[in-house]
Hints:
By secondary structure, this protein is α+β, with helices and mostly antiparallel strands. It folds into four domains: about 1-85 and about 150-190, no CATH class; about 90-145 and about 195-235, 2-Layer Sandwich (Phosphorylase Kinase, domain 1); about 240-420, no CATH class; about 465-525. It has 22 helices and eleven strands. A hairpin with a 4-residue loop joins strand 3 (about 125-135) and strand 4 (about 140-145).
Amino acid sequence: MFKKKIKLAKRFIQISKTLSELGFSNAYDYFKALLGIEIDEEAQPRRIREALEKLGPSFIKLGQVLSTRPDLVPQSVIQELIKLQDKVAPIEFDVIEEILKRNYGDKLWEIFSYIDPKPIASASISQVHVGYLQTGEKVAIKVRRPNLKEMIELDAELMLTIIDFLEKHSKTVKEFNIKGVIYQFKRTTLNEADFEIEAQNIKIFQENFKDYPDFYVPKCYEDISSSEILVTEFIEGTKISQIEILKQKGFNLKKLAEKLTDAYFKMVFKDGVYHADPHPGNLFVLDDGRICAVDYGMVAFLSKTKKRYFFDYIVAVTTLDINLAIQFYEGFNMFTPYTDFNNFEADLQFFLEKYHNKKLEEIDLKEMILDIIEFVRTNHLRLPTDIAYLGKAAINLEGTVRELDPTFNPTQRLKKFITVSTKEYILEKLGEVRDSAELAFYAIFKLENAYRLLIRERISIQVIFKDLEELQLFYKNQIHKIVYSILLVGMLVSIPLFKKAGMETKADILFFFALFLSFILIYKILRF
Length: 528
């Protein structure tokens, strides 16, 4: 425990030093700027992003998580966080070789015939090297950075400590529930750092796209992969961002945009599992025209129920059905104690009317997502992780296809993926009616049991009021002030008595204690 506290202290000093070099007075002020709590004109969004990049892997990943949370972070900061460069200085190959030997032992050079010491990519979580198997296949070897998990755990705890401090001194921070974001960052980053999970994700995508001609998923060598090493087929293709090379090779850019959009919409609306990080660096065009995505560390899932909520929301927009739209927000549990329902309904009505008369092909996907983000933030709604990732991925997708063809609108392709036959829709609604009937039937017995319990047993019901909690906190602070005041008065009275009795040393010590206590008391009086 003591060693851990020393590590935390060292890391805090290191972070504070880095932030001070970038013009931030301390870590607390930096987090306030990041969350837009106390706007400082000098704390430009670009400097906030640069600070995350300099602070290392954990903070880069935190920035990526926060870039999906417009309910917490100002839009100007999000626009910068989206640009976060997940590129860090490469690790020496000696260190990489040690990790390889630890995993393969004496079999290392029985498995690989050659591994290029120079990495082709170096990111916050891993480093990638080109290699060749003894069987001749060219592979990409993804190696997790050493001590990464320990650093993530340490930085997460440090972030929670900082948020604890901010919550005590800012009501706004407490309302935001930033701790939930830190736990989300920790969970998603640790999952992304576990390459056994990524290998399973690749298997899922291979199964989903096995009969799909326009999208290719790389082969994964599971038998020689582990939690810290992932071996996959090396993709020989052109990055989708290399527009001029694609033109030289004779590709139809509009056709590529259609293929990419169709593959992504299939993931979301058909399969319910999608690549959550489709930025241009992860997308390649093979020589036969197929789109290939690499890096399956960030993958998100949508249940059948959640897919239905999305479909119903689209129906609500086309039919101006505000009650159906409200079910979407209720289904995703987006309402918070700070949501004003009168304003919410008025804003929702305005949003529905804005898009009601537009055909799908007339809707600008990015504009619509930004409108939803503003709607969420204005109405103090909670943004679930699955919607947050979907929004970020959709913006990345829209940007990529617009680069391929500026006239292409992704929503043109949406109709074929969200159209459900009348028979399927009726069957689903009948299923919902059946589920409701079953719930009502069993609820009768539950109510009867509750009634019997009320009659036969003593039941205590605890009701917690938020205002009462705040009132309790207020009185707690007042009591602290009174206690400090009594102690201070006692010390001030005792000092001359000690001096009169000839106990100079004790009087001096008591004076310093009184001085220290007076500072605390003044702080508490001014702060609360």
